[in-house]
Please model this.
Amino acid sequence: MNKLRIGVLVSGRGSNLQAVIDNIEQGRLSAEVAVVISDQADAFALERARKHAIPAVPVSAQGFRGRREEYDSLLVQELRKYDVDLVILAGFMRVITGVLVHAFPNRIMNIHPALLPSFPGLHVQKAAIEHGVRFSGCTVHFVDEGMDTGPIIIQAVVPVLDGDSSDSLAARILKQEHKIFSRAIQLFAEGKLTVEGRRVVIAGGMAGTDDFLINP
Ligand code: GRF
Model:
């Protein structure tokens, strides 16, 4: 069977991209990164891709203000060029339009550093601390046309501790991001994910656990 070909969209440091690459190289994820595309030519994520001999393509968004659809059709063109089966948004700091969503229906995943539907958008670790929640975490979801609204695939939970800064909470969450993104991709690669309305059904279900978290 052909390996799932992933196209990764990034804007920054690319630690989630790195985790996916590492999981592939270590045999934990059966897929290949076909291309990494960035709206920022100087994104460190592009360097990470090059280091692993993965095509790294900057697609500048300059000059596309108010023409987001046109920009997204450039992305679609690039992704098609590399024959991508699944698109992942790994710290891609742009809101995407229907042009991209409809080109890859239920085939775009995003990782978000909060337990959606709480705290969508930006600066969410700070917002979680300020709100006083006892738990936060991260969410991998399929992307629809809303902001962080699509069907949820996997979530991981971490405690919010007394004395946490947004950086310390972000670091705790990021560790989990690096696990669950690959896990969601692997489930997709195995053909185990079906979207039914807002719900993602996982064939065979997931392993159960009695270890529920309580904080404090
Ligand atoms: C992560 O926190 C991710 O959840 C959010 O953007 C950040 C990207 O980090 N969407 P990195 O570039 O993968 O290190």
